[in-house]
Each structure stands twice: as structure tokens, then as C-alpha cells.
Structure to design on (357 residues):
């Protein structure tokens, strides 16, 4: 497979983030739709097409209430919703992984049970663990034992729980862990997004890659995801669909191929604007401005050889091709070595040595 190693996600601070198109089960059980979504994610510029691998019977009891906006997804039971879309098995995921390889986009799928970990293992180079499984010790251990990097969503969790999950993963062989800020509201209102938590995660886990898994409704400017990048998200995950008008499931807060294109364009623009240096210094394109827009010490009157320079004899004007005003105190009292006209831009060769000052 063409999947990247996790080291590929540890990109320089201001380079483009790794963008995951979270297809999940927006294929609604159609293998052909799933393939088309992979192709659309690639066309939009995503780095990875990700699915969700589960069986309703191992994921939720029949008495599991909804935790999403039921005006958007009318299912009142988790079991009934998950049962509707759990038709794929190992062979379908193998086909999807091969299709990703053919298209040229990375394949990933979130396992929700131990069986899924087993058959996804040869298909992925990186495991994703959902927010709701951050406390699922058996799943954490099974994933960690595969010895592959892990992307761990942190929705509805606190720092103590994140620490315990990290400890569990590390104790069982996983040391490359990316943490995604996430809010488990479907959809997430802007006032609940709390993107500043990205900054908090970066401070609390300075040696980890930090990213963002988004459930807000996308706007034209892809504001939430662009802001997340500006705050330091190195991995960005967003639900993805071929038709945002479809009812229910994750279509209503997903982005489509046009949103993805706009996001990639925005991220590229932001990346260009940020540049690659945090150190304040002049850059080559400013060389002409440094020379011509800065000032030099200039004579306010004509002067003769052997005249001594007084403060009233001097002013500062553009361009900056002569002696910089930084040397103002060094120039006062120096002797002129030849006749000079008013408005002459002083250069060091116009002055006698400092010993003769």
C-alpha cells in the first residue's frame, strides 16, 4: 500500500497539514459509492480517505440512545443507525484499500472492535482511534500491539483520560501518537468548537503531533479548519460526502469535493502568508527597500575641507545608501576631507579618521 509512515505526518510547523477526508459510512453500504468518494477526496486534494469499520452488534447495545441532533439524523437508537450501514466486511475494506492505492490517496479506517483491528492491520500503516474509544482499554491495547502509529481523537475527554490512554498505548508498544482536538457534537455549533483547545493540547503535549477533527458545518471560507491550522493543527480530519443535501448520517455536517478544494486553496494561501521563519529578520525581497527607503546622514549646508561637523550641519534623508543614522554620534565632530555640497549624502570616505576627531 502507499500509506505514509507516521513520520510523514510530523511535518515542519508551517508546512501544509495532513488532510483526512472522513468518509466514514457516508457510502451507505454501496461499494461503488465508497470508491467514488475515494476518487472525489483525491480530486479535492485530500491526503487520506478514511472509513469506519464496525458491526452494530459489537458496537452498541439495542438500548443505546442517540447523542446527535435528531432533527438531522432521525434515528433514536445508536444500534439502529449503525446497523443500517455495517454491511462491509474484510473483503470490501481490502478492495477499498486497493482502490485508494490505485487512485493515489492514503487509506485508513477506524476499527471499533478487535476483529476489525485484526483484518485492517495489513491494510493500514497508521491506526485511527475514535474519541468514544479513548477509554476502551482492550481496543487501545490491541491497536498498540500492532506497533503502528496511532491518531487518537480526544472528543468529550479531559486531560487525565488522555494521559491514561497515552499510557496504555505506550505500555503496549505504541509511541507515535497524534492527538486530535474534537468536540462530540453532531453538528458542532461554532460556539462549542473551542479551537483554543488545540493550543492547550500543544502546551500539554509538546512532543506530540496535534491535529483537529471537525464537526462544524462548513462555510465558504472553511474558517474552522483554516483557524485550526493557524493554531498549529498538523493533521486535519473532516467528514466527507458526495452530496451534502442527503438526509441523516454524517452528510449534513460534512464537506464535499468543492469544499475540499476551497480548503486546500485556503491552506496553501495561509501557508504562503505564514512563510517558514519565526525569527524576525529582513528577507531578500526587502533588500531594495533597506537600501532606498531607509535614511542616511545628509548635509544641511555646503561644507569645506577640514570643517568639523556639528549637529546643525546634519539631517537624515532617504535613500539609505550613505552613513546610517545609527552612527549619528560617531559622525558629529568628525572632519570633512573635501569640499561637499549641500544635500550631500555622507559616506565614510568623506570623513577623516576617527583619530582626528
Amino acid at each position: 500500500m502507499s500509506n505514509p509512515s507516521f513520520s510523514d505526518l510530523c511535518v515542519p510547523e508551517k508546512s501544509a497539514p495532513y488532510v483526512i477526508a472522513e468518509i466514514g459510512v457516508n457510502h451507505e453500504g454501496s461499494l461503488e459509492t465508497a470508491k467514488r468518494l475515494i476518487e472525489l477526496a483525491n480530486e479535492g486534494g485530500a491526503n487520506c480517505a478514511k472509513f469506519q469499520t464496525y458491526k452494530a452488534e459489537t458496537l452498541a447495545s439495542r438500548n443505546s440512545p442517540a447523542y446527535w441532533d435528531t432533527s438531522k439524523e432521525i434515528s433514536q437508537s445508536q444500534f439502529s443507525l449503525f446497523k443500517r450501514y455495517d454491511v462491509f466486511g474484510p473483503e470490501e475494506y481490502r478492495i477499498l484499500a486497493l482502490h485508494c492505492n490505485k487512485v493515489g490517496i492514503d487509506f485508513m479506517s477506524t476499527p471499533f472492535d478487535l476483529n476489525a483491528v485484526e483484518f485492517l492491520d495489513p491494510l493500514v500503516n497508521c491506526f485511527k482511534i475514535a474519541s468514544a474509544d479513548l477509554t476502551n482499554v482492550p481496543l487501545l491495547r490491541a491497536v498498540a500491539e500492532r506497533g503502528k502509529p496511532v491518531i487518537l481523537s480526544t472528543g468529550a475527554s479531559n486531560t487525565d483520560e488522555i494521559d491514561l490512554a497515552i499510557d496504555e498505548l505506550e505500555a503496549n508498544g505504541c509511541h507515535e501518537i497524534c492527538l486530535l482536538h474534537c468536540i462530540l457534537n453532531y453538528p458542532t455549533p461554532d460556539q462549542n468548537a473551542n479551537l483554543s483547545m488545540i493550543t492547550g493540547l500543544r502546551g500539554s503535549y509538546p512532543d506530540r503531533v496535534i491535529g483537529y477533527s471537525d464537526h462544524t458545518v462548513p462555510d465558504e471560507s472553511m474558517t474552522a479548519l483554516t483557524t485550526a491550522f493557524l493554531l498549529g493543527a498538523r493533521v486535519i480530519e473532516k467528514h466527507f460526502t458526495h452530496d451534502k443535501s442527503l438526509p441523516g448520517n454524517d452528510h449534513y455536517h460534512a464537506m464535499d469535493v468543492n469544499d475540499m478544494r476551497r480548503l486546500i486553496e485556503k491552506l496553501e494561501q495561509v501557508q504562503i502568508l505564514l512563510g517558514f521563519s519565526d525569527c524576525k529578520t529582513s528577507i531578500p525581497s526587502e533588500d531594495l527597500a533597506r537600501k532606498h527607503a531607509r535614511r542616511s546622514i545628509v548635509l544641511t549646508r555646503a561644507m569645506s575641507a577640514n570643517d568639523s561637523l556639528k549637529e546643525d550641519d546634519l539631517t537624515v534623508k532617504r535613500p539609505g545608501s550613505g552613513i546610517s543614522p545609527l552612527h549619528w554620534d560617531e559622525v558629529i565632530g568628525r572632519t570633512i576631507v573635501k569640499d561637499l555640497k549641500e544635500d550631500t549624502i555622507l559616506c565614510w570616505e568623506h570623513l577623516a579618521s576617527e583619530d582626528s576627531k
Observations:
- The chain is about 30% helix and 15% strand.
